[in-house]
């Protein structure tokens, strides 16, 4: 390859006219540089920057050469086409390809490609075969579009380039993605461009106007308007073919650059040359490309050089004569023997690098072109090395193209031994770019997430989220809040650099601190402590880093404690459901994780502004996953499933599954039979769940019946064993496991002597029995509920008695003893509400506790009732407001009575009806809006017609609002409306008398018929239209809610059971005794044993067994899902199609076998002819052998020439020398023949 000369045009003339300004430029022979012209100072900034890209401080001569090398940069305006604008640059053939690449990427703003396909040949095809045109239009452009590729052509509007440009245009119009674009770049010789003077005539700040034309085959062609960028090469007349050299150099430079979806430097840009047809002059360019280790894809059946190479590759063995014969047959117009010899040698050198050649026959193969391209790149790499590091670029390319099938079949096929360290970079790429199939593939092939995922990598994953995603907005908000807190907490003084806010054009670098804040907003206490462990700081600058929470470098290198959970949260927060599903399937504590994912997506769907993203979040199936998986566990073992609900998890901050389900508001999960069965068990406490209500009520009013057999206790069999958990040392027994799962750690069961029951006296055993039964009966939630219901009815009876019979005057005459007792009763209710709101076990602020308390509607009702009671009592103590106090207390009694509805929520029949009534109340409010509009319209109109001058406001409101409302229910006073029915009474029209109330106002009888007409219309609309609308709304609400009332009721039932499970055993007003005892217990910090039923800390061995059991059930559930998926009609159709494709491949393999047999026959024929020639030579020599030559056997062969008779020792006597000589020349092979130098190189062993 000729070296680039210093002169811009090789041997430039002494004078040359500048194409921009017309000045004559003198050329220095010594320096080969052009002198400056008047347009030198007005160069385009793009040209100047490209020239300066070769280094600062360049000499004036270098700048002048850079000016001439860049020549002309501008825009092209194609008239009469849809593409109106393109860019072009005119360069010299010796221009450095670095400048051209910088021009494309930096000045013109093209993103670095992930693939470069150079289209070689096909320019001479004026008429293309339909399948070839479809391959270019559908295959090549589609493959390029799926990867974001550059396609390099000659850019001329002729031959295959024209069809390619049309395909690029069609795909660009049909594409909806702005990220992945196909860029068609034309590299054409300057002297082959039609109307090239128009490019030079345009001013530098204006585009050149070019009209594309379809010109016949000749010396010049028009530029293709569907190409977006053009590099126009001015060739030296003494160096033809310089444009091809420019293409080879540019492709070589591009192949050395690195790019990637995950960031700069991910993998080298793959470059592939696609050979279509091709004239013999293509061979020189092809040989240069192969010299640069550039893979080539040959399109079989396209004709020209491509078919010659395919034919020779299929033969496997050939000689120079056969190659020359193929060249002459393919190109009959070629007659120069020197050219044919040179082409033959080039073909031999090209075929010696068979690992860089791949043949694709679109008519015989069904593979997509992008698959073939990737296979060609992998083949070129595999032939050079078997080391894993050498395959990383191809693997990264497969990740970028998302072709996991090729990665499985060609890279992870067992030929290369991969280590976990080799796959770390591609694993990060697959995670960042949402390639779950590749993540699964890498994990299956050696990546251990426990070693791979560090806190630093996890932080990088969160930093790589898309700026348009909701997660980025949430993290940015937390980041800005942290910066404000840092600014407020920073001590006075000059600001530190590391606390400066990021510029607007820089992406904020998030830390795990922001992630923990976002998670806490969604999961609350279930994620408390995530990513918040700070390095200990003993310096005096702690105030400056108070809210930074940035992990130290050493901590960032630590491995994540729960990698599957961390990646699951990362995927869920980005709404990458397929990725999150895989992490959920691989991670532990699957039920809890599914509920956490459901909670996050449910919260994010309310924040998402895009409707499509919000819909996909709502359609996530994590609640169904949790429900189905728990159902699988429940069907396997009820006791273990119950323990799974209350077990304190390791990955979710000691939260239980029930807590996570409550946070997520997973009503369907609570409606599961297993959860309801567990709640029923909790509801009845230690008593059996089949205890009759009558027995419970009887024992409630007659406590001695507790110690009889009237009520049975389910855990007495376990209690009789005594001794607590020390005896359950061996965990292999199912009875032992069941005992550990069901024990509630009652202190009365484990507080006896060490000798157990046998070591105690009968009196002690009897007292323990009495105390245990007494405690278990009265502490059961059902008993607590029964006591509260009974006492609440007693409270309402007392309230009624006070209001109706014993509401005494203000002090000192009152209040009486019953009223004082009522005050004390309400005081105990207030204490209980304060305990529920502020004195809970959750570790959170008082404000947040109050917020959670207010979220419950029944708690709001309690607050209203207590507030009204306090107001009423305060008013009744003062003489002036005594009646107001009575009124407020009367209203307060209504509120306390309505509170009874909550008590009935536990009933299976009444509970769902309460939900329906609640929904109907919302419908009533909407109905009242329509009703009020029509009612006010009618009331104001009738008031204005009947009583236009009545100044009394109370009567105005009565006639405008109250009287029309009574009309709806049939109370129509016609004597006040109809003139015919008005009685003869004294009335007045004097305003003073009306105000004094001496006489009623006289109605206005003018247009009284209009009042009657309005009444008829009002009754028609309200009684017929609006009331029927209300009934229809109620019917629709009933139908919609009826199907889900059972689910809502079961969720309400759970809340009610948890409420009464946490309540003291005594009901108000005796509950104050329980409050005092709880206060004393909290002072001595004694734990409350009642919580053990809803939150259990299992022993380490049993906890591990339970987690393993849950994992096994999860695998069974996933296997069941997989079977259902495979048995679906769609999958069966895919399986059938795959089998048909496999059968077609097998049938297609017969043709390959036929080719191999034909090649072997040719080689055998060649060996036979050589042996015949050797035998003939021996027969004509003087050498003799003692034994006779072997006889030629009779062979029936097809396609194989039999060994001639001349193979015997003596030549045939009847054949002359003239006849023998041509035969010798026919089988003679020259020393440079391919078959002589390299025997059988292409036989598939």
From TrEMBL:
GO terms for molecular function: calcium-activated cation channel activity; ligand-gated calcium channel activity. Signal peptide: none annotated. Keywords: Ion channel, Ion transport, Membrane, Transmembrane, Transmembrane helix, Transport. It comes from the Eukaryota. Residues 792-1043 form the Ion transport domain. Residues 1202-1245 are annotated as: Disordered. Residues 87-312 form the TRPM SLOG domain. It is a multi-pass membrane protein. One of its GO terms (cellular component) is plasma membrane. The chain crosses the membrane at residues 777-802, 925-946, 1006-1031. It is found in: Membrane. Pfam families: Ion_trans, LSDAT_euk, TRPM2. The keyword Endoplasmic reticulum does not apply. Residues 1216-1228 have a biased composition (Basic and acidic residues). InterPro entries: Ion_trans_dom, TRPM, TRPM-like, TRPM_SLOG. Residues 410-672 form the TRPM-like domain. This is Transient receptor potential cation channel, subfamily M, member 5. It comes from Salmo trutta (Brown trout). The lineage of its organism: Eukaryota, Metazoa, Chordata, Craniata, Vertebrata. The gene is TRPM5.
